[in-house]
Amino acid sequence: MASVFIVRPFGTKSVMIAGQPVEVDFNQVHKSLIQPAVEKNGLECRTTEVIAAAGNIRLDMFQMLIAYDLVIADISIDNANVFYELGIRHGLRPNGTILIRFPSSGKDVPFDLKTDRYIQYDQADPAAVVDLLARSIRDTIRDMRKLERKPDSPVFLLLPELRPPDPALLIVVPRDFQEAVERAESDAENGRPTLALLGVALGSFDRFL
């Protein structure tokens, strides 16, 4: 099953739309648009909001941006975290990124993304394009499995000789898990049952490419 990571603003933001300030709830956009579209493909998704309370959020975030099959990024507003995370993804993965946005007054997509395709939604009714996003997710995952596939990263489009790193080499095993394995290996009497339990725990970790 493909893994999906969401890059987006959190909470409610004031945005100028048609010359008027409008409060946009990006958590609601996630619930009514992104999550249903992901679930229509039989998948689950994670965001930095989910991992914020668990471990090193920056390490977890980097690993997901690099190793997850698919990243969906909402670039509707000038959010530094969103563009920082999107830049990491575009710089290290040639494929598997979908951009979404709603139009706002006096704002266009950043210059570096003007040639990129994105799915446009209405902030007042984001659910209206659930099927469109779901189809894009399905098509993107399908295209990623082809031997010949065009990059969706502007970095890899402009630098065709650039080679992405192997995501498996960039996954850091949590230090406490490493220490538990080392203790179990050194325990001749009780080590085998402990290693078996650790193997079960390892099977529950997120699947990376």
The count of β-strands is: 7
- Oligomeric status: single chain
Q: Could you say which structural class the secondary elements and strand pairing correspond to?
A: alpha/beta
Low-confidence stretches: none
- Give the strand order, joined by hyphens, for the main sheet: 4-1-5-6-7
Cα-to-Cα separation, first versus last residue: 10 Å
CA gyration radius, whole angstroms: 20 Å
Supply the number of helical segments: 8
Q: Could you state the order of secondary-structure elements as H and E? A: EEEHEHHEHEEHHHH
Query: How would a textbook summarize the main sheet?
Result: 5 strands, parallel
Mean pLDDT: 80
Q: Assign an overall shape.
A: globular
Portion in helices: 40-55%
Residues in β-strands, percent: 5-15%
Overall description:
The protein is α/β, with parallel strands linked by helices and 209 residues long. It contains 8 helices and 7 strands, in the order βββαβααβαββαααα. It starts with a strand and ends in a 6-residue tail after the last helix.
Supply database-style keywords.
alpha/beta, globular, 5-stranded parallel beta sheet, single chain, 209 residues, 42% helix, 8 helices
